[in-house]
Amino acid sequence: MAYRVAIVGATGAVGRELLKILAERKFPVSEVVALASPRSTGQQVSFGDDQVLKIRNLETYDFTGTDIALFSPGAAVSAIHAPRAAEQGCVVIDNTSQFRMEPGVPLVVPEVNPQALARFRKRNIIANPNCSTIQMVVALKPLHDLAKVKRVVVSTYQSVSGAGKEGMDELFMQTKGSFVNDFPTAEQFTKPIAFNVIPHIDKFMEDGATKEEWKMSVETRKILDPDIQVIATCVRVPVFIGHAEAIHVEFENPISVAQATAALKKAPGVSVFDKREDAGYITPLDAAGDDEVFISRLRKDPTVPHGLAFWCVSDNLRKGAALNAVQIAEELHRQGLLAKQPA
After folding, report:
1. Computed over its alpha carbons, how large is the radius of gyration of the chain?
2. Are 7 and 18 in contact (CB under 8 A)?
3. How many CB atoms lie within 10 A of CB 330?
4. Cβ pair 1, 29 in contact under 8 A
5. Catalytic residue chosen out of the listed positions 131, 144, 312, 333
6. According to the 3-state scheme, what is the secondary structure of 103-121?
7. For the whole model, what pTM was predicted?
8. Known catalytic residue at 333
9. CATH number for 97
């Protein structure tokens, strides 16, 4: 048995990664449909080693008979077409911010809260969390189970691919231009990103936080525990792929570095690489193309009674977006929550 799967936003960075991961993980498909905006209709994208899919028009596509739609077209487009797909009987896994905090829409990281999927039929939509939230809660889950997380202070170092292909292109062009005295103006970011860091991702809110920082706080509470307090500072850095986070955690109960290390090593989706020597840690360049959430620099935080600090790195296009969406589909399949089509 297999499923008819639609990829919405198939020409984007995450859409292409979705196609790649579906094939890599051999998700049971009877057909894969690549969808995008009218201007992309007729273009081609690859699926697996030898299949080429022709882009179809999202605006005219009928989702009746499609089992799963993996959406990553931008929030405004998802707002229009995800409910339409859901009403036509298709299970929507949406990678945008549009539905994450809506009641009745599960916000899911399979390693953390797979039980939340039981509630998806109310809207037929499942939300994929923000990229920076995903890797953090994967790391926090085993520690929360062990000693109960009370408060998190996190600073992120987020790659330009979080802003899509256009963000990656801007970093490339600015870097190239700096060597030929032709430095392009900033368009995708508020200031030049090459050779710079920008403490601003998404819109500013009334309290001075950015929406990206707000997302990390409210999404962590929805996914992991409503009592956890989170303060984030989110920074865009001149790296193409891979998000890094410096995380300081205060716990309600005592926890040692050894206990935390043991729990993290057993946790699904986590890889501990912490040698306390030169190069004994993971960087975004190391993590690019891998599926794990990597933990390094684990140590005691002596500024609070029960505290730990650590460095957390993951590929934001894979675990931070496409991989998590495919894992949600796999979990739906495992739990028997999907209607099946004959292969």
Report:
1. 20
2. yes
3. 14
4. no
5. 131
6. CCCCECCCCCCHHHHHHHH
7. 0.95
8. no
9. 3.40.50.720
Q: Say whether 243 is catalytic.
A: yes
**Domain presence at residue 341:** no
Query: Are both 22 and 166 inside the same structural domain?
Result: no
178 is a domain residue: yes
Strand partners, 2: 341
Q: Are 162 and 316 in contact (CB under 8 A)?
A: yes
Find all residues with CB under 8 Å of 246, minimum gap 6, and list them. 154, 155, 157, 309, 311
Domain harbouring 236, CATH code? 3.30.360.10
Examine the domain organization and report whether 65 and 188 are in the same domain.
no
181 pLDDT above the threshold of 90: no
Q: Are residues 298 and 150 in the same domain?
A: yes
Q: ∠ CA(324), CA(34), CA(58), 5° rounding?
A: 105
Among 40, 25, 328, 314, smallest CA distance to 165 is for 40
Which of helix, strand or coil describes residue 157?
strand
Q: Token pair for residue 205?
A: 């809110």
Q: Is the pLDDT of residue 173 over 70?
A: yes
Among candidate residues 81, 90, 144, 243, the one labeled active-site is 243
Structural domain boundaries enclosing 10: 3-129+321-334
d(CA 18, CA 10): 8
CA 321/CA 164 separation, integer angstroms: 12
Does residue 340 carry a pLDDT above 70?
A: no
The DSSP code for 121 is G
